[in-house]
Amino acid sequence: AQPYETILVERTGRTAVLTLNRPKALNALNLQVMNEVVAATAELDRDPDIGCIVITGSPKAFAAGADIKEMRPQSYMDMYLSDWFTAWDRLGDLRTPTVAAVAGHALGGGCELAMLCDILLAADTAVFGQPEIKLGVIPGIGGSQRLTRAVGKAKAMDLCLTGRTMDATEAERAGLVSRIVPAADLLTEARAVAEKVAAMSAPVAMMAKEAVNRAFETTLAEGVRFERRLFHAVFATEDQKEGMAAFVEKRGAEFRHR
Ligand code: CAA
């Protein structure tokens, strides 16, 4: 039996697929979903046998946003004292690479959840937006920041101020999406990407992720210095010896993940 009510977690080999499972509410992200996603991903992150985590929803909705019915009655004090949504930040702190596999609506918190992941695979049915303004609020899980970093001011302002959505093609052109795949192939493709990442050296994949993420937090010179330190450090891994030996010996690398 699974310990969760709003998500499903399935492990296959070195990968795990976490499926949001509130179909009646189009996977609206209430606090229970948040707590379960955060707990499940933290557990997978601690597991040395897991090398990549896929987060997905249903064909109709990745997630149609934070739960509007749950938020509606809240006061400022409720939101402030409970630090509403802050637990979602822990997804950005995961060391294990994550893949968002998005079909259908990825709106508000749904778009923000997808942007918290490292690789964003979109089905051709995916629709992205930050429509909070239509509800009289603004994004609250980092959308105004991550969307702007992903697609620039022009599109971010357009989406956040008008509440309009972007289809998968526009989102890919704008730089929000890593790849578009046919909807019917989304999970197969997401699993394949996850398996590919999970077959790499786990510590080196963590360092690659850390280095890319540093680009969002620092200057170019500091970021390059940070990369250089990590680059030197990977020469302390067995996996660097194996990866380079495999190349020279013209065989596939068998990373030991340490
Ligand atoms: N919160 C709570 N319930 C939601 C929901 C949400 N974000 N999105 C959909 N639902 C519920 C609907 O209320 C409906 O429930 P009932 O059957 O009980 O009425 C059910 O899911 C199905 O939804 P619809 O009937 O609306 O489905 P549709 O196919 O006609 O429309 C949709 C789909 C366009 C996505 C529409 O549901 C919609 O606009 N949803 C809200 C999108 C939105 O505004 N998201 C932002 C939320 S705020 C936010 O996320 C803040 C933040 O930054 C974190």
TrEMBL record:
Belongs to the enoyl-CoA hydratase/isomerase family. It is an enzyme of class 4 (lyase). Its EC number is 4.2.1.17. Keywords: Lyase. PANTHER family: ENOYL-COA HYDRATASE, MITOCHONDRIAL, ENOYL-COA HYDRATASE-RELATED. This is Enoyl-CoA hydratase echA8. It comes from the Bacteria. One of its GO terms (molecular function) is enoyl-CoA hydratase activity. PROSITE patterns: ENOYL_COA_HYDRATASE (PS00166). Transmembrane segments: none annotated. It catalyses: a (3S)-3-hydroxyacyl-CoA = a (2E)-enoyl-CoA + H2O; a 4-saturated-(3S)-3-hydroxyacyl-CoA = a (3E)-enoyl-CoA + H2O.
